[in-house]
Amino acid sequence: MADTRISFDFDGTPPGASQPTPRIEFVCAPELAGRIPTPERAIRFAPEWFKRLERDMGVPDAHGLPGLTVKACLPVTDAFSLGFVIPLPFDVMLQVPETRVNIAMGWPQDVPFAPLEQHHPAQIGAPEPPFEAAMPLKFINPWRIKVPAGYSVLLTQPFNRPDLPFSCFSGVVDCDRFDTTINLPFLWTGPVGQHLLPAGTPIAQILPIPRDALLKDYASRPANEAELAEEAAARKRKYHEESTYARDWRVRK
Which candidate, 231, 123, 228, 232, places its Cα nearest to that of 185? Predict the structure, then answer.
């Protein structure tokens, strides 16, 4: 039987467009198709706390401009929009004790695979700092990630999500060469007690990265006179004009 796959062009071009564009594909076993939530563009998982936030606080800021919330911060919006998100496939229940170590896990009996597993604590050096009270767990990801030759994939905690009660370890995988699924190690950072993680919870943000575009050469130096003047002019505009970043500096992602 053929795999089931969800595909996205990196630039948003619909599949079948005349100009070929790099594409990422998320591939699952056929028996899971239609039974588990599919990966989506990351912006679809923007959290409720961000959606309900008003853009304007209704008071001026220290420079006399309208006082704005993070809802008006385009760098934050762009981070929410960047890449793709893998969702939790099934409902998961966790019972977190006071020690935060012996975490009990459960899920519906009819699911075709266990959505969580444990890592051995010694794999992260527990109980040595900073893991004195930690049980490393991992999300079992059913989606294989396929990217064009020359691409790696950054898998990381969903950006700007302090509301999520866990923290994923970040990793970079050469998915153009790695022909199987990637599980997602994490630590429980939420409170003790019993907790339900519903199916569809975002568990990782996925960013395809062309390896030949990575910057490896670098320099650290004092600013020259021209750079100081540029920075001063930009700072003045940033704090004394409205929407300067959106109008003149931001590039739509």
Answer: 123
Q: How far apart are CA 48 and CA 80, in angstroms?
A: 12
Domain boundaries, the chain: 4-213
Q: Which fold has domain 4-213?
A: Deoxyuridine 5'-Triphosphate Nucleotidohydrolase; Chain A (2.70.40)
pTM of the model: 0.87
Q: Report the C-alpha gap between 235 and 237 in whole angstroms.
A: 5
**131 CB-near residues (< 8 Å, 6+ apart):** 121, 124, 125, 187
For residues 144 and 27, the answer to whether their CB atoms sit within 8 Å is: yes
pLDDT tens digits, one per residue of 173-202: 999 999 999 999 999 999 999 999 999 999
pLDDT in tens, 20-68: 789 999 999 999 999 999 999 999 999 999 999 998 888 888 888 888 8
Tokens of 233: 């002019």
